[in-house]
Design brief:
The chain is α/β, with parallel strands linked by helices. Helix content is 35%, strand content 24%. The chain folds into two domains: 263 residues, Zn peptidases (Aminopeptidase, 3-Layer(aba) Sandwich); 112 residues, Alpha-Beta Plaits (2-Layer Sandwich). Helix 3 packs across helix 11 and helix 9 packs across helix 11.
């Protein structure tokens, strides 16, 4: 698994371009004796393994894509693709699921079917949604689906999992404000879109603090401001971009409505026009929501691997988002975190110094194996569980 992981780290590929990665995965699955299907979600790969008597159908998912980040590490397996790197550990996720597939093919101690899903384009391109739209669960009718992500600052040898919201929703918005351009020395002759934008940015920060129930967590962030190209002219257009995140689907709509109302009202007061667009290019992700029964199974498998004291059953949900949420909208399932160890020396996700901790490869693979054996136990064993 370490050799696989480091090979993948050297040759990172970004969303929907994971052709070499997909070939590598497909070759390994074929070597293990699995049925291999390619092309769902453009570059997705699914391996199928059946054993024993017909039983549960369980899907396990790993993401394959890298990020547009220039790697700053100096070790031998650093990225060889300029401007791209595995800064989120998807190389490790892929290697762990391959390891589990290899072991289960040699030791099929279960009854039923396992679908090993290797997904492209998790990073902001909704590869899970693409695979589903291409017929993922009609071709591979799983009863339940499970995902896993490494998490820095959770200790090595530990897991974290809970039912309900595990990761936040993710919605993008773009607000285009149009005024009337004028000379910077004569602002009274135009309508200043920049001043209107400044007022709107401040007002947007009141949505969470003054419009939502204090018990509901949410974040509204402006992440881009684009306006003007010279020193001495007030431009006619300002473009704001940002994101909103929360743990309830109902809040997604409420926050979006409030953004629209504030934009309309403030811009009208400044005599400028405004247009707000939400989720251009279908960038939004739903809440990552773990079902209760499947979370109990994941908790049982994780405890069997590392012990009860090393499984955090009450982690604080993350305001980060995850497109595995689309799969959880289709099937009951669970998404958990595996500890990647300390984040010292900038070993944080989406950081140019990040590297996956190879020491957790056998722990993650063992979790996958134990989860399959737990979910796909024979009837007598299931009853005893």
């Amino acid at each position: 698994m370490r050799e696989w992981r480091r090979h993948l780290h050297q040759y990172p590929e970004t969303a929907f371009e994971e052709t070499q990665t997909a070939q590598f995965v497909a070759d390994r699955l074929t070597e293990f004796g699995l049925e291999v299907h390619r092309g769902l979600g453009k570059t997705g790969v699914v391996g199928t393994l059946r054993a024993g008597t017909p039983g549960k159908k369980i899907a396990l998912r790993a993401d394959m894509d890298a990020l547009f980040i220039q790697e700053h590490n100096g070790f031998a397996h650093r990225s060889r693709h300029d401007g791209k790197m595995h800064a989120c550990g998807h190389d490790g996720h892929t290697a762990m699921l391959l390891g589990a597939a290899c072991h289960l093919a040699k030791h099929p101690n279960f009854n039923g079917t396992v679908y090993f899903i290797f997904q492209p384009a998790e990073e902001c391109r909704a590869g899970a949604k693409e695979m589903i739209q291409d017929g993922l669960f009609s071709h591979f009718p799983a009863d339940c689906v499970f995902g896993m992500h490494n998490f820095p600052d959770i200790p090595t040898g530990h897991f974290a999992v809970k039912s309900g919201a595990m990761m936040a929703s993710f919605d993008c918005f773009e607000i285009i404000i149009k005024g009337e351009a004028t000379h910077a020395a004569m602002p009274h002759l135009g309508n200043d879109a920049i001043v209107a934008a400044a007022q709107l940015i401040t007002a947007l920060q009141t949505i969470v603090s003054r419009n939502l129930n204090p018990a509901d967590a949410a974040v509204v962030s402006i992440t881009q401001i684009h306006a003007g190209d010279t020193w001495n002219a007030i431009p006619d257009t300002v473009t704001l971009r940002g994101t909103l995140r929360c743990f309830k689907t109902s809040l997604q709509t409420e926050i979006a409505d409030r953004i629209q109302h504030l934009a309309t009202g403030i811009c009208a007061a400044f005599k400028v026009s405004v247009q707000a667009v939400f989720n251009p290019e279908n960038l939004g992700y739903p809440v990552t929501w773990n079902s209760e029964a499947e979370t109990a199974l994941a908790r049982q498998a994780a405890t069997a691997v590392v012990g009860m004291d090393c499984v955090d059953l009450h982690p604080v949900p993350s305001m980060g988002s995850e497109d595995f949420a689309f799969m959880l909208q289709e099937k009951p399932g669970c998404y958990l975190w595996i500890g990647n160890g300390p984040s010292a020396n900038s070993c944080l996700l989406h950081n140019p110094h990040y590297d996956f901790n190879d020491g957790i490869l056998p722990i993650g693979a063992a979790y996958w194996v134990k989860l399959v054996e737990t979910v796909c136990a024979d009837a007598e064993k299931q009853f005893s569980l």
